[in-house]
Amino acid sequence: MLRMEEIEFEKKKSTIIQAMQTATRSSYYNELFKSTQIDIDNLQTYEEFARIPILTKDTYREHSFDFIIDEIRDRMDIDYIKTLKRAEKKQELKKFDINMISTSGSTGKPLDVIRHKVDEYSDYFVPNLYRKRHLKNIHNQALLWLWPVPRFQQEQYYGTNQGFHKIDNGYKYFLNEYSPETFEKMFQFIIEKQIEWISGFPSALHLFAHYVLAAHPSEPIETVKYIECNSEYLHDYQSETIHKAFCVHPTSIYASNESLFIGRTCSKGHIHVFDKNVFVELIPNEEGVNEVVVTKLTNQKIPLIRYKIGDYAQWSGETCACSEFKSPVLTLKSFRKNDYIVKENGEKIEPLNIIEVMLNLKYSRGLAIQQYQYIQHAFHDFEVQLSSSESMQEADRLVIHSEIVRFLSSLVDNPVTVDIKYTTEALPPDPVSGKFRYFINTVNLRMEV
């Protein structure tokens, strides 16, 4: 019996070969294909394609600029760019229409991903085709994008401490904390602006839906016609609560920063692969667990072939009964799970705020911080596991402890105790999901507003 990868390879063979031919325009893949004797022009079977070594995050991190096609890379001073600080590096890359995005590090160390604008535009085309089916009668300015963001990034990049920022097709609504006051402002904002399309993290939408059901049980938001979840796995209990509050079944996008859009859920709740964007393989690891490996089919400027994104999944053994997709169905076995920093009064704060103090320590003070994990054991009691590339001097440890205590105390509006544990070893991922969690909350509190 043929594997799903073999079936899909035969369907997409010509497109996959075109993606590989594009990849030869980059120094990394040109050298890789030569060293592994991959004959692209005569490629016939999936087994031949599978001889290409799988690209890991560590290799991507080491060679990220070598994936850029030579026509662009030859115009760049790569050695100079590598010396720049993150903010300066981002600005320099924009001169070449390249965006740099930092991942959350959910599978280990945070990763700086580079994407060309041309590739991003091509990648958005496919999910936008499916969105249009739901957005035919939706006003172009009616999007509300719920965006968990640290306060410092909001002020630094958008120059505002207001709750929202106007964008071309609607509004970004900044979520620094999850309180009744914040949710009430969001509720009134949606009514005032006649918001029809909401996009956001499932966890944030779930908490907001709880608030709407509790605070406005007889005031349904009738303008909302489409809800799209992203960045986290959409659980059934979250979907049900969101549907009760808005009378709309939410859909969910499956993506990664490196490969962008991989798939989305249909009306039956199944994740279908965007097979015009990506060729997906599920490759068993040493433990026999299938890891998701992606080849981009649309990238013209920064190709990506057989990249292991860090998720676990399996192919569905059943044919989906939906009429929206004919592509294969994935069942995810690992996904990001976000906890919240909880204040004593029950308010919840987006853990992305932690990034502020850690970026400051790493880049402004030049400390060799590689990974970190915060654990909230009680309202005012935190533990921090910190991995560094070299042993920390006592003076540096005092600075780190002082800054983290100051930051967390201001965040939760109370003095806190912080126990920092240092190591030069990599911090382990969650043993069940395989994802690294940079914040864990063990406070015994129900996640309801």
TrEMBL record:
This is Capsular polysaccharide biosynthesis protein CapK. It comes from the Bacteria. InterPro entries: ANL_N_sf, CapK_Type1_Caps_Biosynth. Gene3D superfamilies: N-terminal domain of ligase-like.
